[in-house]
Structure formats: structure tokens, C-alpha cells
Amino acid sequence: MIERRFERKVSAAAVVVIAATYGYFLIFAEFSFLELLRMSVGGDGLRPAMGALCAGGIVGSVVAAWRFRLEMYARSLQLGAVACAVAAGLACVQASAWTAVAIGLSLGWLTVTLTSGLRAVLGVERLGLVVGLGTGLAYALCNLPVVFHATPRIQAGIAIALMVLAVVAAVALGKGTAECSEAPDFKARPATCWVVIFMALVWMDSAAFYIIQHTPALLAETWSETTSLWINATIHLAVAVVAGRLIDRGWLGRIAIGAWVGLAVACGLLTASMQAFAGAEILYTAGVSLYSVALVYYPARSGRPWLATAVFAVAGWIGSALGIGMAQDLNAVPVWFVVAAGVVVIGLLIVRQHGRHGLRQPLLVLALLGVLGSREVRADEEAQLIARGREVFIGEGCIHCHSQFVRPGTVDVTRWGPEKPLVEMITGAPPLPGNRRQGPDLAQVGNRRSPEWNRLHLMTPREVSPGSRMPSYAHLFREGDGRGDALVAYLASLGAETLERRSAQVQAWKPATDVVINEAKGAGLFARLCANCHGDEGRGDGVLTARLSMHPPDWSLGAWRRVDATDEAASVARIIKFGLPGSPMAGHEYLRDEEVVSLARHVRSLQRGAKAP
After folding, report:
1. pTM (two decimals)
2. Which GO terms describe its molecular function (predicted)?
3. Which of 49, 145, 389, 430 has the smallest C-beta neighbourhood within 10 Å, fewest atoms?
4. Looking at residue 30, which CATH number applies to its domain?
């Protein structure tokens, strides 16, 4: 009886430490720290800091394996947890590349130390269940609406609290018997296969996650609604626990295949359309939970610190960096890559059992797929479509009404985006400064309008922009005529290189504080500019709603979708002024501050009215 109670105590402590460790990674290192970085160093400094985080994680993983001693297991866990907490505190004071290094070092140490000793203190009979429960709780916690919607600093505080829990729980993990598994799955060849399998899965997930996080419309559909977050939390926990139980029964390989299937379907639908992905959100969530449990279980089952280092340094840190980099460069998860990842996962699961000679075929297929679907091939196809769109832009006479030159030091910079060197414009073939500006400048329209909005506007300009003088170009979108798609692709390409600068510019904007609010004018502006999509009373039932991939919110339900509750007035005004890039919600950059504030007051009155009894 006493021994059984002790086992339960140790298992519970292990669940707490696992949940705290991965909760810290999910809500802080992968989420709120990036927001703190963005506020501190801006968009241009984000990539170097992310590189520093990755480098720190790799070094921390290596040092943890080198210094691992089972007799010091509890103290090593506590050291890592304290270091993580201190790093999170420093990030709240000043987020920088140096704090990124500190977070990476401490988290790398903690993850490798944790998994290296779990086998010794828990045994292997229920290891999968413990790992599944801890991992599932971490994901569930981070998807709780009160946690997910908290400010970055509050989320950092939650991460610090998790590390305090880990310090306390680690006391119960101080005793264990050193034992490394001699199972075939942990020898050199199978271990290499598993590391590559995990890297492929992490790569897919990181790319998809980055795209969702940086596409407002997708983010709103997946993680902004309270109901969606509760569903995600429930799925994460349930799937993780089931995965842990199945892994204890020898299903590790099938779990990896299941994870790839879920991620593959989700990534394929993510590339297809926002509406399609919304239906695959459950598969994405389940796939993430499946591979996450396997990722922790495999090195933990081995009891080998250096294998844990290989898994987390190569698959975790490097795989994540590669996925984010691919998403930043392509803004998509290419089909060829999803197929290649499937070849890796399924092929290497076969190879690990059939010898080194079987390794050649999957790797050869992977290499061929990489060559055939390389970035250069994809970029060439996109470049041809964009070049054709530029020709359509010129041929249809768009240059007579639209400029492509943001004049430095003028209101242009606020309205249309950061200025660019004049040489970039005059070296075009031909240059497209525009003849006479009748409509908005288009030098960076890809930052301000989604392809979906541009398509609708080109086809029915006065329905989308009441009062517009632009003629309809619906004839470009007739069946078999690719000119419309080419023109939309060209417009989407304009300003891609200044996206981060524009985002920082938008976040820094606030309306003047001395403007006079005219509620009647705000109501009139809403009726003229907003009602076609949002409806007369903000119920999301405007005449254009059925044609949008993402329907406007119904404010009668009383909940905002993308408004910062800590500064509601400024947040609503900012969305009205600049829109939500990547979504059908376009900005009204030409409105004066008093018009923006008056319109924002009317919008807030509609939403507040929904809350009234």
C-alpha cells in the first residue's frame, strides 16, 4: 500500500513537471515572448532574436546531457526551472536577443534533463500515460481563454508560476534507479530514423502554426473565439491521454503516422482556403497532440541523455526554425513538402526495422521531391504569374489612376505604408509611378488588402467601396481568362518586403486626443462604408456577407473578435483605420482622425448595446 502511494505521488509529480515545462514552452517561449520581442526590438529584430533562442536551446540541450547525473536529478530540474523563471522575468523587463539566449539555454537544459530521468523514477509500465497527461494538460492550460487572451506580460507571469510549481513538484522525483533501455529502437540507426521523423513533424507543425498566427482571418477562426479555445483544450487533453495509453501498448509508430495524417490534411486544406482549414482544425489539433506525446515519450523511454539532446536539438529547435523559415519565405506549406514528410515518416518507420539498405529509397525519394518541388521552381511559377499580372495592370490602364510611389514625409506614409528608395521605383521595366492619383497608392497594397478583397473589389467595386469611381473588371475573371488571377497575384506581391515595418507602424498609430466626436457622422459613415458587410446593426448580415470566406462577427452576441480589451477604443479605431491584413476586413486609411474616432464610437455603441439587458 505504501509503495503504491509512493508511485502515485511520483507519477503526479512527474505530470506536474511535464505540464509546467511544456506549458512554459507553449505559452511563453513560443508565444508571449515573441510579442514582447516585437514590442521591444520591432519586426526587423525578430529574426536575429529567434535565431538566438534556437542557438541557446541547442547549447542548453548539449550541456544538460553532458552534465546529467541521476543522483542530482531533482536539483537539476529545479535549477532549470529557476533559470526559466528568471529568464521570463528578464524578458518582461527588456526582451532582447540576450534574453532569448537565456530562455533557450534554460529551456534546453530543462527539457533534456526532464526526459533523461523519467524512466528511472517512473519505470516504463505507465510512462506513456504520464507523459500524455502532462503534455495534454500543458496544451489544455494554454488554450484556456483566460490564459490565451491574457497580455504577454501576464502570460509571462503564468509561465513563471508554472516554473515555481515545477520546483516544488521536482522534490518528489529525487529517487530512481539508473537504467538505459537496450531495446532495438534506441540503437544508432533506428534512433536516427526517429530523430528525422520527429523533425519532419515539428517542421510541418511550426510552418502551419506560424501561418495561422500571422493570418488574422485564420487566427480569428481557430483561436480567437472562446468556444474554439475550449474545444481545442478538450481535444488536446483527450487525444494526448489516449496517445499515451496507446504508446504504452506499443503503438508509437502508428501514433507518428496518425500525427502526420492529421497535420497533412490540415496543411493541405490550409493551402486551399480559410473555410476549408476551419473544418480541419480538429485534425490539426489532434495531430499536434499525437506527435508531441511521442516526442517526449521516445527519449524518456530510452533513458539516454544524448538521445534526448538529439531529439530536442535537431527535431525540436532546428525543425521548428526550419518550419518558421519556410512559412516566412513561402507563406504556405507546399504540397510537395507534405508528401515528402509522409515519405520520411512512413519510410523511416519501415527502415528502422529492415536495415540500413532500406534507408536509401526513402531518402532518395525525399531528395527527388525536394528538387522537384524546391523553392526555385515554386518561385519561378509565382514570378511568371506576377509578371503577367503586371502586364495586365499596365494594359488595363490602372497606371492612369493609381500611383506606386509613397511620397516621403507626407500623409502617404501613414495611409499607404513605409516609403521605399526612389531607385526601386525608377528601375522598374517600365517604372510605374502613375500618371495622376485618382485612387489610393498601390505601392504596398499587398500589405493592406487581401487577395480575396482585391478580387471582389475588381469585380464589383461600388459594392465593396461605395462611391468608388473605378470601373468593374469582372470580364478579367471569366472562365478560361487568367488575367484576373494574374492581376490579383501582382497586387498581392506589392509591399511584401515591408510587411513587418508596416505592421509595426500600424501598431504604433493612435488617433489624436483632441478630436471632436460626432456621433451622427459616425452612424452615417457606418451606414455608407460598413453596413454592406457588417449589416445595419452589426449582426454580420450585410449584403456581401455570403460572398466572404470569413463572415463578419455578430456583435449582438456581445463579443469582440480581434479587439484588444486593455485598450478597446484605440484598438477599434486602429482596425477601422488599417483593417486586418490577410482578412476581408479592409482599412479606411483616408478617413481623418475625427471620422475614425466617431465611427469607432458608433461601432462600440453597437457592441455595447448587444450587452444591454
Report:
1. 0.64
2. electron transfer activity; heme binding; metal ion binding
3. 430
4. 1.20.1250.20
